[in-house]
């Protein structure tokens, strides 16, 4: 089911003036239905990368991560995001990753999901548990906030897990 993905391309890296995140690396891919998706990979201290994706036409929407595309192509899109993560991991062997499963909002279907244990979070969690071994990664999650972090055990940074948790609570107090 998750064994095929779309060809993706690197678009650009944007360095942030305030350093939060340090950079955003943008990738894109086009589906068989000719829909263009953007994948923003935010790079933080300690080689932590947070992966976010959305339909390009939603780029300027505040709800871009919440909206459904209704294209019934989720497995292949998620596999593409996972392949982007793996490509980063190959370049950055100390990379750690994370994501938040944004709540779904769909006015037409009358869906306004709470942020606790979202459908996206549940699906993403299953995928990363099967692809990223707990031999190499600490799987840390917060169901209440639908947040998941893969902490790379090979990263030589002392107290990495604690430092990453502290960093995200500092940058995003709503995650605590």
Folded structure, characterized:
It contains 3 helices and 9 strands. It has helices spanning 74-91, 119-131, 160-171; strands spanning 8-15, 23-30, 36-44, 48-55, 96-100, 105-106, 111-112, 137-142, 147-152. Strands 1-2-3-4-5-9-8 form a 7-stranded mixed β-sheet, sandwiched between helices. A two-stranded antiparallel ribbon has the order 6-7. The radius of gyration is 16 Å and the shape is globular. The mean pLDDT is 93.
Question: Secondary-structure map with pairings?
Answer:
Blueprint: E1 8-15, E2 23-30, E3 36-44, E4 48-55, H1 74-91, E5 96-100, E6 105-106, E7 111-112, H2 119-131, E8 137-142, E9 147-152, H3 160-171
Parallel strand pairs: 4-5
Antiparallel strand pairs: 1-2, 2-3, 3-4, 5-9, 6-7, 8-9
Q: What is the gist of this entry?
A:
24% of the residues lie in helices and 31% in strands. It is α+β, with helices and mostly antiparallel strands and 176 residues long. The model has no long low-confidence stretch (mean pLDDT 93).
